[in-house]
Design goal:
Distance between the termini: 80 Å
Number of strands: 13
CATH superfamily of the largest domain: Umud Fragment, subunit A
Oligomer: single chain
Radius of gyration: 26 Å
Strand content: 25-35%
Mean pLDDT: 84
CATH topology of the largest domain: Umud Fragment, subunit A
Length: 202
């Protein structure tokens, strides 16, 4: 008798075959599935949710129908972050994706002639915008003082974005923020971290 199938003590190692082998395989697959589900539950509990982009207002940073993983728990809005928010005065509270340009206590001035956004008098370096801004009508805001507990947001595709410049949105209460966009998870070819950037020019 060959020693290949023997375990210490001289006994042969038990083999599983037939229906029993199928049960063993099924058990391991179920175990892996349960672990994956537990992992997803932990992500949604301690990180946030997954939500889709609807529209082109954040191009080229985000594309229509991108799926985003959000950080919701413990998030505090910061200038430059890409966030998902919901405001009842716009689209009946449907979630929208924008970039935070200023937070509570800051002042925003928009100069269309120089394609420049100023925060507290400092011109922002905005490499993420799609193209130079086209001037809007006088009914849209160009000077905004952001109250404490609120944020001012704009889209990266400025000429195709209803954002804080519009009376429909204006400044947004921080409590309307559903979370910060962390990662593009779908489509797979666009998988990657969503960059937070909004800084004064050097």
């Amino acid at each position: 008798m060959s020693d290949e199938n023997k375990v210490p003590g001289g006994e042969e190692e038990p083999k599983v075959s037939g229906p029993d082998a199928l049960k063993v395989d099924l058990y391991f697959w179920l175990q892996a599935l349960v672990m994956a589900l537990v992992g997803l539950i932990l992500i949604f509990t301690f990180v946030g949710r997954i939500i889709g982009v609807d529209g082109e207002s954040m191009m080229p940073t985000l594309m229509d129908h991108d799926m985003l993983l959000l950080q919701s728990i413990g998030y505090e809005p910061e200038q430059g972050d890409v966030v998902v928010l919901s405001k009842n005065t716009f689209r009946n509270g449907q979630p929208i994706v924008k970039r935070i340009i200023a937070v509570g206590g800051q002042t925003v001035d928009i100069d269309y002639s120089s394609n420049t956004v100023y925060v507290d008098g400092e011109a922002l370096d905005e490499p993420y915008i799609l193209e130079p801004m086209e001037e809007l009508s006088s009914s849209f805001y160009t000077h905004i003082e952001v109250p404490e507990g609120s944020i001012f947001v704009m889209g990266d595709n400025r000429n195709n974005s209803t954002d804080g410049r519009s009376p429909e949105i204006g400044v947004v209460d921080e409590r309307c923020v559903l979370g910060r966009a962390l990662v593009v998870v779908l489509p797979f070819q666009d998988f990657g971290v969503v960059e937070s950037i909004s800084r004064p020019r050097a």
